[in-house]
Amino acid sequence: MLSVENKDGEVNGEHAGVILAGHTHGFLAPAPNQFLVVDLPEADFPSLTRLPAFPRLSVALLRYIQFLHTDITSSTSSSSTRSQMLLLLIQLLLEQQGEHLDLDRRIITAKQYLEANYHRRISTKELAAVAHLSTRQLNDLFRGQLGHLALCLLDQPKDARIQEIAGAK
After folding, report:
1. How far is it, in rounded angstroms, from Cα 83 to Cα 89?
2. ∠ CA(48), CA(12), CA(84), 5° rounding?
3. Is the pLDDT of residue 129 over 90?
4. What is the distance of C-alpha 43 from the center of its chain?
5. Which of 145, 39, 33, 130 is nearest to 82 (CA)?
């Protein structure tokens, strides 16, 4: 049994538990349990606040969480990759709750440009110009909505960039 802000719920194979920073919580378990506990800065993951305390888990989401648990406990991924995987988890949880990631039109424009020009190297300055932003504004917007800088997409190999662009449409 988990309590978050005086709301009780069960964390099991069908429900996750989300505890935001500063929220009161308590836990009671009569049997052995396994948890994936990740401390995510709210500033880097602003969409966390839109998650319910006890989101329902599909079989696919549960498997993804198990994959994350394995990756995090074995430390095989870089912190940047891990942030992307956690951001995807949050997005999937939100979509399962019926929410969709409403991206700023300038991010959509930048992503469409990246998609159309995936075969060549694009600078952050060029991408910012396409979105009618300064490079600082572009990176702030990317970080606020996607949890990473635009530069992270630009530095990825071509195949990874295509998958990232396709995933955030």
Report:
1. 10
2. 35
3. yes
4. 12
5. 39
pLDDT at position 169 over 50: no
Q: Is pLDDT of 123 > 80?
A: yes
Residue 88's CB is within 10 A of a number of other CB atoms, namely 16
Could you report how far apart the first and last alpha carbons of the chain are, in Å?
37
Residue type at 134?
S
Q: Which two tokens stand for residue 114?
A: 């990246």
Q: How far apart are CA 53 and CA 6, in angstroms?
A: 11
DSSP 2-15: EEETTEEE--SSSB
Q: How far apart are CA 83 and CA 147, in angstroms?
A: 8
Q: How many CB atoms lie within 10 A of CB 138?
A: 24
Give residues with Cβ within 8 angstroms of 166, minimum separation 6. Answer: 115
pLDDT in tens, 130-148: 999 998 888 888 777 766 6
Written as six digits, the tokens of 90 are 């949050």
Its pTM surpasses 0.70? no
